[in-house]
Amino acid sequence: MSQPVIQTEQLTKRFGAFTAVDRISFQVDKGEIFGFLGANGAGKTTAMRMLCGLSKPTSGKGTVAGYNIASQSESVKRSIGYMSQKFSLYEDLKVWENIRLFAGIYGMEERLIAPKTDELLTRLGFADERNTLVKSLPLGWKQKLSFSVSIFHEPRIVFLDEPTGGVDPVTRRQFWELIYDAADRGITVFVTTHYMDEAEYCNRVSIMVDGRIEALDTPGNLKQQFGAHSMDEVFLQLARKATRKAD
Predict the structure, then answer these.
(1) Distance CA 91, CA 135 (A)
(2) Cα(12)–Cα(111) distance, integer angstroms
(3) In the list 28, 29, 130, 225, which could disulfide-bond 6, CB 3.0-4.6 Å?
(4) What is the pLDDT of residues 169-194, one digit of tens each?
(5) Which domains does the chain have, with CATH numbers?
(6) Is the pTM of this model over 0.85?
(7) Strands of the sheet with 80-83, listed across from one edge
């Protein structure tokens, strides 16, 4: 059995008296597409920031790619790719310039960047857009380019924070094809989303409610466990249960 590439134990983040992430424990295996689901404000992004080495936990433990997220955050950052919901591309640079810039940031060897850029542009069907300013691209194209740039250096893990927000259903499905392709190449995909239908595309999902993981399993097993026909129904049941607890 291979060592998990992400592992947490009682991971917690507090801001004063407010607990944003409350003692979450889980693990993610190599090449897995792991969905981190929950409503806006559930604590997903805060948890992801800790896993990416961008925010130190208040308590608990976590490792990513074998590195401690609290004490080895720089090593964590060098081992991962990251794509935010607002896209990290520079709008006033050309397509190829963005790829070149991020390849340098990720520390890729100079001799590999140019041929790999040509290969990527051909694979995405962007060869004719090589010299186009990114701000001129349609939103769906920006999204595909941003994801491709985030895994250009072949990281062990890529973190995607609400990557399909604001795009149409067809483009969302096309984006998930890119995710499957990355997973087939051995890249572990950790994706946060509040679109419950996207859970169906994941190998396993965790569902966060008010900072806690309230369910974690395959989509099929969760639907069976909750007697539900969709992941929306599963989430609704968990949300109702949390409301009753609060009352």
Answers:
(1) 5
(2) 42
(3) 28
(4) 888 888 899 999 999 999 999 999 88
(5) 6-56+73-246 (3.40.50.300)
(6) yes
(7) 80-83, 157-161, 188-193, 33-38, 204-209, 212-217
